[in-house]
Amino acid sequence: MRRPExxxxxxxxxxxxxxxxxxxxxxxxxxxxxxxxxxxxxxPSEATPVCKNIxxxxxxxxxxxxxxNPAHQRVAPFNIVQTYAxxxxxxxxxxxxxxxxxxxxxxxxxxxxxxxxADLASGAIIGPGGxxxxxxxxxxxxxxxxxxxTNHLGNLxxxxxxxxxxxxxxxxxxxxxWVRIDAKTVSEGYVQSEVVSSGxxxxxxxxxxxxxxxxxxxxxxxxxxxxxGDTASAASATSDTTRPASLGMLALGTQGLPLWRR
Length: 262
Fold this sequence. Notes:
about 260 residues; alpha+beta; 4-stranded antiparallel β-sheet; about 15% helix
C-alpha cells in the first residue's frame, strides 16, 4: 500500500499568504477611503485675527517714529510718526503733528472723504472694497498748534479712542487690519499720543472688525456691533502667530479632530 505523502505546508502557506495580502489590500483601501472621507469632512482653515497690545508712547515735545510692523516682516509696511516744531520760545508757536504713513508697496490706509486716514468706529468692517490709499500729506492723523486748538487738521479725535484701518501684503496677498492710536492735548501746547494696540487678519483677502479680535463670519453676516468689545486687551495672552493644523494630527484619528478644529 502506498503511504500518503507528508504535507509540506507549501500549498497552505501560499493560500495563507494570498489571503493575508487580500485582507491587507482591503484594509489599505478602506483606510485610504476613510482618510479621504476624513479630509473631506475636516474643518477648513478659518480666519484668525492676530492681535497684540503695543503701548508705545511718543515723547512729548519731540519728534519720534514708530515702525509699525504687524506681521514682523523684514521691512515695516508703515511708519507712525509724531513731529514737533517751535518757531520761537513763545507757547503759541508750538506745532504738533501725527502721521500714519505707508512705507512699502502694497501698504495703504483706509481714507475718509478728505483723503486723510479715516477715524473708524469700533466694529467697522475693514476689508476688500474699502477706500484705501496713501493718505494726503503723508497720512496726517492730526495737527495741533497752541492757538486755542483751532488750527487742528486731521480726523483723529483728541481724548477719545481712535481706530485706523490698513492693508498690507504678506507673500503678495492682501491682509487687512486696524491700529488704535490715541492722543490728547496737555499743558503748554503739547500733544501726548500713543500707539495702543493693533490687529490684522491672518487669512488673506479676509475682512476684520476695527478694534476687534473676532473673525468676520460670512455665514452670519458678521454684525460689527456684536464684536465691538473684543479688543486687543481682551486677547493680550494670545500669540502673534497662529498654529496651523497638520495632517499629522489626522493620524491620531478621532483624538486628533479637536486639535485639527482649533
